[in-house]
Design goal:
Helices cover about 55% and strands about 5% of the residues. It has 14 helices and five strands. α3 packs parallel to α4, α6 crosses α12 and α13 runs antiparallel to α14.
Length: about 325
Amino acid sequence: MPPVPRPKRPPRILVVDDHIDNAKLMAHLLRSRGYEVEVANSAEQAQPAIHAQAPDLILLDVIMPGRSGYELCQELKSHPATRLIPIVMMTGLSDREDKIRGIEAGADDFLNKPLFPEELFARVKSLIKLKEYTDELEDAEDVLCTLGLSVEARDPYTEGHCERLAHLARDLGHQLGVDEDSLVALRRGGFLHDLGKITVPDEILKKGTNLTAAEWEVMKQHPITGEMICRPLKSLRPVLPIIRSHHEHWNGSGYPDQLVGEQIPLLARILQTVDVYDALTTERPYKRALSHQEAASTMRREANAGLWDSVLVEEFLNMVAKAQAA
């Protein structure tokens, strides 16, 4: 017999309204449509509920004691863990400036008070469907990141490599002042940069050194393959330049496109810098792990020879030195 699919959990909605009767009425209406509903009467009450179990939708009153709905909305939309939760702002205010302020805070939709049940149901249904699509995309990204880790698992000497690169690349990006979307791309790039190696045979992948010319041509295809695998997901578009270009060299001797200098995307150069450091400081069957000082000397020498971005190398080495001294 085929497996019985697990029942889908009902969407979870958080109602945030300081008017208790209004909140209870909305909760009653939404539960009658099969939604799971939790109620909070202030921004302060809402926060622990959101962080304990992220809701699929938030219905948020604008005017509340303490922090306003605008402030809570802006805070949630600025945090990577909560910014994709749809937020509907509920207000009795009809002034155009109030709606503009809500849009600037990141609100996804508005409901005017008094609420009409059919309008409430229609807005909620639409945004819950949007959240389902977003979750599906996140699930697809998780699958690809797991595939990236499966590539790492084929070589016992690279255990933890992807996780280290994800953290180091994000840290270096933060030090350089790149925006939040770029920091997310760098973290994902840590897991996905070598995804294309999934098509490289073990006898080549695990050989490690002294590849033949034919084997080297196979290996050099992995950035292109990884980019092709990730291209269908629009949410991974910022990661594609990292995947494709992290093996380019500052002097144009890298692959697959022989880019030169700043033709190499900045995020790819950031990941490349931390990748080189991790490779130098990790033991391999054919070499010992270098100390930080030895790795720093090697990276500076190779940067002077035209392989790496010397400015990024110095930024990264200074960052590591400060972390070790702390």
